[in-house]
Write a structure and sequence with these properties.
This protein has a single domain, classed as Orthogonal Bundle (Hypothetical protein af1432), CATH 1.10.3210. It is 48% helix and 0% strand. It has eight helices and no strands. Helix 2 crosses helix 6, helix 3 packs across helix 5 and helix 3 packs across helix 6. The longest helix has 18 residues. 44% of the residues are buried. It binds fe (ii) ion (2 copies). The site of one fe (ii) ion has 6 residues, from helix 4. The site of one fe (ii) ion has 6 residues, from helix 2.
Length: 193
């Protein structure tokens, strides 16, 4: 399977990305940092090509779902905090209709609940995240996938190779540039405002 590179999604502007990253309190290239967000984005857009998931929601999920973690381990409530950040920034640094926002919010809140039912866009978001489990040495389980596409052995193998290998999608560098000059700081890029 060939490499898959993310197509630019207009919704994710430098202004929006910077607003998200500037409040992220963990290392930008840590377990749940920007390379993970970028792989989730690649995974999600790839899944969307099969499921018909909304690429705008998939894109926003990638950058919001882990954006408000307090730690790299079990972090109860981080999905809801990410969803609430999406709500707080909506209408200020990005615009999204109610239908898409409801899908995004739900997907973020429940992304660690192990659910496999629901709207195809939401299910695609969840599987995009699950396909990146290789980075913590977990092989994604096809029986726990919410879409038939992400449960395919060749899709899991493709994603796991990138995840375990620490593949950093090129868009990561672009995001760090957008986010400011303090990219790569161990402590992240400053406190929330
Ligand atoms: Fe998460
Ligand atoms: Fe995640």
């Amino acid at each position: 399977m060939t490499e898959f590179e993310t197509e630019p999604q207009g919704i994710l502007t430098p202004h929006l990305l910077k607003a998200i990253v500037s409040q992220y309190s963990l290392p930008w290239r840590g377990t749940h940092g920007l390379p993970h967000w970028a792989r989730v984005l690649d995974n999600g857009l790839r899944i969307a090509g099969d499921t018909g998931a909304d690429p705008i929601v998939v894109t926003l999920f990638a950058v919001f779902h882990d954006a408000c973690r307090f730690n790299e381990g079990w972090d109860r409530g981080h999905g809801r905090r990410g969803a609430d950040l999406a709500a707080a920034l909506r209408g200020d640094v990005y615009v999204l209709d109610d239908m898409r926002f409801d899908l995004l919010y739900y997907a973020c809140v429940h992304h660690t609940d192990g659910m496999t039912d629901g709207d195809p866009t939401v299910r695609s978001c969840w599987d995009a995240d699950r396909l990146d489990l290789g980075r913590v040495r977990i092989t994604p389980d096809p029986r726990r996938m919410a879409t038939d596409y992400a449960a395919r052995p060749e899709v899991i193998a493709w994603a796991e190779k990138r995840s375990r290998g620490g593949y950093v999608p090129p868009v990561t560098d672009i995001w760090e540039k957008w986010a400011g000059d303090d990219a790569g700081d161990e402590a992240g890029a400053g406190a929330a405002d």
